[in-house]
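Researcher: Here's the sequence for the chain we discussed earlier.
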Amino acid sequence: MIQLTGKTAVVTGASRGIGLEVARVLASRGAAVAIIATKENTDLAKSLADEQGVKVLAYACDVSCADSVKKTFDQIIEDFGAIDILVNNAGITRDGLLMRMKDEDFDDVIRVNLRSVFICTKAVARHMMGRRQGRIINMSSINGIRTQPGQANYAASKAGVIGLTKTNSLELAPRGITVNAIAPGFIQTDMTAKLNEDTIQKFKEAIPLKELGKPADIANLVAFLASEEARYITGQVIGVDGGLNA
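Model: Thanks. This is the structure I predict for it:
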């Protein structure tokens, strides 16, 4: 079993869904975890800490604001001593057809889904470079590879995450830092829970494995990429989609 004892992970967008499961799985493997969300959730952090027996703290931070990120990351380093793993998971959707999409809906998705990856990675990179080690894992999407109508903003943001991942992997590799991306397919989250049964059934029929994925399917891959076992993997985009993009 992969062990991350002695490591500290930062997970953005960690208050629910995939991010929460990532935080839980990393903690279960022994990592101390800093949960970042738009609102501080000390109850969630305490619950995870009690459940997994590791240090878990929660921080409120606007991950698209450089000043907010710097202050938060400086505080995390003070509280934990170091940051070994960064999981850029924060994301939103504002779906709409191109001719009906509001400018602010495009800008908001790019700001949260893409700009935050740039800002958070930049904030932690110097710290990791000085220690000559680190794992950065970015959450892209199958929609950053193959898209569908109504998601011009989301697809652009997730395709941008792939571009950042590949570029940053080349720049940071000489200092022992790996940078990879995960591209989830249709996963059972609050987002898919809002869909009607007919829509979900159509998704299942399109997926070779004939079922939606679970947040744990993503979180388990995050744990692997964060581990020493994945030390020679960098610059990759790994799909977790039941074969949908095969």
